[in-house]
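Shipment paperwork, digital attachment
Item: protein structure file
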Amino acid sequence: MMPIINVIEAVRDAMKEEMARDASVFIMGEDVGKRGGVFLATQGFVEEFGEQRVIDMPLAESGIAGIAVGAAMAGLRPIAEIQFADFISPTMNQIVGEAARARYGTKGEVHVPMVVRSPYGGQVRGGLFHSQSVEAYFAHTPGLKVVAPSTPFDAKGLLKSAIRDNDPVLFLEHKRTYRSVRGEVPNTDYSIPIGSADVKRAGHDATIVSYGLTIHYALQAAEVLEKEGIQIEIVDLRSIRPLDTETIINSVSKTSRLLVLHEDNLTGGIGAEISAIVSEKAFDLLDAPIMRCAGLDIPAMPFAPTLEAAYMPSLEKILATTRKLLAY
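Attachment content:
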């Protein structure tokens, strides 16, 4: 019987196992050492691996990312933690301008095998500066992989793949899932290929494509609709770039209806890209317009509980949008 753990434990186990396996892997970030990280992702690491491989950094995200780029180019495999995704904007030049372009700019001679981990997302009462979703900014960038797991099994398997990858990976962890989502995770070594989606629930009446926290809301909605005789297929992207277009199209070919669900702002989000792909490649398979259920187009997540709830996709919103989709 496999142990049941939560998402933060899966992240911790993946990093610990990879550091034990490969001496070139090291961790750097704010409070990752003695404190063990603000969410305790690196709890006990400095005692086990030492301060040369678990490096506390100053409050300078651009420096964290820049040093990680240089270390990766020199043959190491850094895991750089940005304490909250809200603070990742100072790293844009290092991640987007340097790491993502290094292989292309050197004709494949230079690789940047680095992982940038960062907790993202709302419904944690984090307010304006601890609740942002940043995936769309980075998913626009060729040369950069963007991963957002929703379960402990996926988190561990994908993080192992990210650490072993020879190109830069942004690994986004929804902080709401850290301790609220639990699941079986093998004790044995395993990995999940980056760029492979997962059908979390099979169905034939409509497809919901999502990732991260909102996958769990989609699954709740599918359970409610099942009592009404409606079977919803749930596709978990897991990787936002590259997208598993084949799995998305195969699902739509079964259901003929598509709802794209994400917490990030509606306009310019991942849902828009998926909608465009399905419109181009599978328009004749659709029996209804593609619909999106996403965060509101406001500058940041509100702090007040009522306003935060108004922003977030919810079970009620997903059910209403899905019923509208099914009515066509």
